[in-house]
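The records we work with from here on pair a chain with its fold. These numbers are not coordinates but entries in a learned vocabulary of local backbone shapes. To see the layout at work, look at the sequence and tokens printed below:
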Amino acid sequence: MNLDVAAQIAKTVFSDTYHEARRKFLSRAPGSRPYKCSSTGPAGEELFTDVAYFGPVDASRLVVLVSATHGVEGYCGSAGQLLFLEAGFHEKLPPSTGMLIIHALNCYGFAWDRRVTAEGIDLNRNFVDFAAPLPANPGYQELADHLVPADLSEASIARAEAAIAAYQTKHGVPNFRFALTGGQYTHPDGMFYGGAEPSEARRTLEQIVADYDVTSKDEVVIVDYHTGLGPYGYGELQTEQSAGREGYEKAVRVFGASVTSPELGNSSSAPIVGTQDTLWERVLGDRRIYIGPEFGTYPSGRTVLRKDHWLFKYRPNEVDSDLGREIRRATKLHFYPQGADWKEMVVWRSHQVHRQTMKAFVR
């Protein structure tokens, strides 16, 4: 794909709302199966995770594409899935290979322009064993009131940032990154909250895995699209800590040396717990390769998330006021830049990943 083609395609695969993205997806995958969400959108409308399957039902190999694990990041993920369909890869499957496309896994977050689910849960921290002791994160507990203060006045934010800077000086930047993003299970209204039980979106994914008999497959590659970390427009191919060194090296053999791993320290992500790959590891073990394309946006993510969580924690009656819409719009623009250059970069890199996936797994 040359850059002129990428620029043209970018104009058609991206959407401005969850509902537009869903309409485009269903038009290209009309036989999709809807999984209804119990929550509704900003106008009270129904929300769905839609699943399309292509290829023989008894295929021994499977390619899985997931969008909107982090809700608002679904603008990118949905575009990636539409790009895959536009390229016609699903029409070139041999008898050994099936294709499973999961559109808008966290459809609530997609519709509301939030990273979290309706329960306030970061879905990519929710795949822990809730029958076991939950992971501890004392650093987050220490910083919680500074990360999401009750007051967003200039003086309050200055005090919060001073406390955060002092924590970084004392404990180091890597420890701060884990305290912030590693996952926490003590503050339901806070950032990167992993939940007290499986979220509805997690249960939906587990149901999809059962409905499509994913556990019976011999080889599975999962592509789970994300945005927000790294340089603007660059698509970093992340593996998760749960994959270990062996999973990282398997991904490198398919996608090349640009693959990263938080365990090895070459990723823009800190090590995190309860990721979606934890589910894939549990049901597939070493029969899977999980890759999370992470498209960079802007460096102000903590500020955006602070306002989002503040709004829904302290001003829940104002989420559809002028203030609420302004905060939600800022979150959307952070995780979904509107620039044609960013969209073009996403299209080019996504097509490369799709082509590599097909080359490795479709045979």
